[in-house]
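Please produce the structure of this protein holding BIS(adenosine)-5'-tetraphosphate.
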Amino acid sequence: MLNIVLFGPPGAGKGTQSQKLIARYNLVHLSTGDLLRSQITQGTELGLRAKKLMDEGLLVPDEVVIGMIESQLANNTTAAGFIFDGFPRTVPQAQSLDELTQRYDTGVSCMIALEVAEEELVKRLLERGKTSGRPDDQDEAKIRRRVNVYNTETAQVAGYYAEQQKFHALNGIGAIEEIFTQICDIIDQKQVAPSISDGQQAADEVKA
Ligand code: B4P
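Below is the modeled complex.
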């Protein structure tokens, strides 16, 4: 099973590259940002809580996003693998992802980090903000706060995967297609871990 963590600051290209990767590798795309925005659109209590934090460029509490990922994994037990986009954003989230995937006898195959300088991030997100309708993309001060939150709370997640020899960094500035090719080169070199369905089959065989 192929489980890729796509990592980087806001605007690094995670969402953009995820769309291309799910098509190439037939993976399920799990974007915590998209899942939270869907809760906001549906007007759920979770969405209302998340909206206040997201609009200010702050992180949503760990237990909220971990709960969302837990149910998405449970709903996709036959998947060939997952792209985790924007998750994990804290070390406790990374630890939970290991625990959750272990339940299905699988784990994170690798983390790929897209590195982009702050001025380019601000430029990209302000540009996206002209059409995205996202309040967190329309105000330079909020964008810089998101980058600051990334530097202070999220960047350390890279060390968590580096300790497991799963961390790969790429320059996220350049043509989208060229960056995609470099990501695919890393993925293609990875050894494939057992799938959720393999794990369940093995568990069923033990029970039988
Ligand atoms: P996300 O939805 O994850 O938003 P993001 O990081 O801003 O998007 P992304 O990085 O995917 O955008 P992309 O580069 O593709 O998070 C939003 C908020 O949700 C967070 O601030 C937080 O509040 C909350 N949240 C989400 N997950 C959470 C978690 N796990 N824990 C706690 N809170 C969480 O695109 C940016 C733009 O750049 C696009 O317009 C694209 O066209 C452009 N672009 C991409 N690649 C380019 C390239 N190579 N060259 C030029 N432009 C490029």
